[in-house]
Amino acid sequence: MAQFVNAKEDLVKEAIDGLLACSGGALSRLDGYPHIKVVYRSDWARDRVALISGGGSGHEPAHAGFVGPGMLTAAVCGEVFASPSVEAVLAGILAATGEAGCLLIVKNYTGDRLNFGLAAERARALGRKVEMVVVDDDIALPDLPQPRGVAGTLFVHKIAGAMAEDGASLEDVAAAARRVIENVASIGTSLDTCTVPGSPKEARIPVGKAELGLGIHGEPGVEQVDFAGAAQAMDMVLDKLRARAVDGPCVALVNNLGSTTPLEMSVLSHGLAQAGLASHVIGPASMMTSLDMHGFSVSILPVSAEDLSALATPVPMAAWPGLQAISAVSVTPLPDGLTPIEPIPSSNAHTHQIISQVADLLIGAEASLNELDAKSGDGDTGSTLATAARSLKDRLDAMPLADLTQLFPALGNELSQTMGGSSGVILAIYFNAAGDACAGGAPVHKALVEGLNRVSDVGGAQVGDRTMIDALAPALDALGDGMDAAAAKARTGADSTADIHRAKAGRAAYVPSENLKGNNDPGAEAVALVFEGLAKAMKG
Q1: Which of 152, 457, 483, 504 could cross-link to 465 by cystine, CB 3.0-4.6 Å?
Q2: Helices (H), 206-328
């Protein structure tokens, strides 16, 4: 798998220097490359308790992204998924620690515990005042004697960091950190493993499965389960955490494990909000990732008023998303004039049957139209049409099926609301113009042609531009000779678009010609399918 890296051995150093170069001078590093990679606050005066964390890289923005006022003083970075050395941790301690001392916040992995622990002992021998806490918030494997440290670590960073920033003593900061560790719980799930730079990706999770409780280094989880959507995935995670959410305020940290899209994370957050498990939320955001893992984790922490205040205190680091209260969705009425005018329903069994059959045809063609569109666009034509078709079927009984002068504009209004992108507005223009012509006395054939003319006037597309018009125009020209003739012309027009290598309208106009060769325009293909379906329906 291709990745935006240069030499593997330079990956972490270049990433750190990229972070520092774009920090506006807020971050510095020790001059210890390649073995010592310590990021610290440029403004640090060693006049308060220092907070130091770190571990293997690959979890960005953790930990260097949280170095700054109110959180970490320094982060000690290892290579990807490898603990930093004793010397690197010691360098960070010596650079950051003043008379107030320092707190090491360590995730519960053997390498981190050993290297940070030995560095702490050496620093104490040199006269530094050092405390260490170990975060073990992962509840995926409840019988494990040494639970892993995962994204719940960020609660420790923020609460302890706020106290240290306010001048609290090392003893008080360490006690607060241990209290948070005692109460925080985390678990994650993923649809895929991660890709370690320079190594082949392990295809451990089959398609259609999700893995619950896998580690942030890609370690296998507690079980693989059937994947049935975002709601089920979030419910499964929250079921594991429910026992840890006590009465009173509770904060959920919703963490993107790497490559889950913002859209997916918002859907997952909707599930969290509906569950009612937490009163406040941090995220959704990428905070402690596992390279490019397609998954998420949730950490739960019951909080006091003081904890809430510490978590809510603003910090300047862009990686920290802040704390928000979970609230009911705010919904306000549509402005006057935008509320849809409901048509007066009327029945026509034949029209109902034809529209239903065409809708079923488009729903059945969803995958093939998406595949075709992916070759020349964004791969959503089938989904767009299928979504509108499903909605139209649900609304048929409310449609004026017995009156075409009302049915055409009703179809246009319905499609403008349910069909996204340019397709919805084009069909809204088409059917509304056809309705106007029909109301003016034009026969159906002429009314549909008038609709096409209006679309061409507004959108500018003509036959030969590689759009749906290449199939629609010849079909309407032949409609007077019967539906079979129209369907044949629509098919010929759609197939002709495979030989048009330069689109002049629509999204395909931005696509290189080599991507278009030999592939029908998906809009024209959909028109041909509709006319072929109409011809079949009218025979039946």
Answers
A1: 504
A2: 230-241, 262-275, 305-312
Find the DSSP H helices in 375-482. 381-395, 404-418, 421-439, 444-459, 469-478
Is the bond leading into 345 cis (omega within 30 degrees of zero)? Answer: no
Residue 256: its H or E element: strand 250-256
CB-CB contact of 234 with 267 (8 Å): no
pLDDT digits (tens, 9 = 90+) for 82-133: 999 999 999 999 999 999 999 999 999 999 999 999 999 999 999 999 999 9
Q: Please tell me the predicted confidence (pLDDT) of residue 108.
A: 95
What's the confidence (pLDDT) of residue 152? 97
Considering the chain, what percentage of its residues have pLDDT values greater than 90?
A: 68
Sequence length of the chain is: 540
Measured in whole angstroms, how far is the alpha carbon of residue 286 from the centre of its chain? Answer: 10
Q: What's the mean pLDDT in 313-317?
A: 98
Strand ranges, E, within 273-415 = 280-285, 295-302, 323-325
In single-letter form, the type of residue at position 253 comes to L
| Residue 142 half-sphere exposure toward CB, CA atoms < 13 A | 4
Q: Under a CB-based contact definition with an 8 Å cutoff, are residues 323 and 308 in contact?
A: yes
> Is the bond into 63 cis (omega within 30 degrees of 0)?
yes
- Find all residues with CB under 8 Å of 422, minimum gap 6, and list them: 459, 506, 507
E strand or H helix that includes residue 79 = strand 74-80
Cα(521)–Cα(372) distance, integer angstroms? 8
| 16 token code pair | 């750190």
Calpha distance 400→410 (Å, rounded): 8
Whether the pLDDT of residue 507 is over 70: the answer is no
Q: Which residue pairs from 483-490 have beta carbons closer than 8 angstroms and sit at least 24 positions apart in sequence? A: 483/531, 483/534, 483/535, 483/538, 484/535, 486/531, 486/534, 486/535, 487/528, 487/531, 487/532, 487/534, 487/535, 490/527, 490/528, 490/530, 490/531, 490/532
Of 24, 244, 285, nearest in space to 154 by CA: 285
Token reading at 255 = 């963490």
Across the range 19-31, mean pLDDT stands at: 98
- Which of the residues are catalytic? 217
- The distance of Cα 467 from the centroid of its chain, to the nearest Å, equals 31
More confident site: 337 or 286: 286
Q: What is the DSSP string of 182-231?
A: HH-EEEEEESS----TTSPPP--S-TTEEEES--TT----SEEEE---HH
Angle between helices 469-478 and 522-539 (to 10 degrees): 30
What is the residue-averaged pLDDT of the chain? 92
CA distance 252 to 255: 9
- The C-alpha atoms of residue 455 and residue 462 are separated, in whole angstroms, by 10
151 token code pair: 């994204």
Give the pLDDT of residue 195.
93
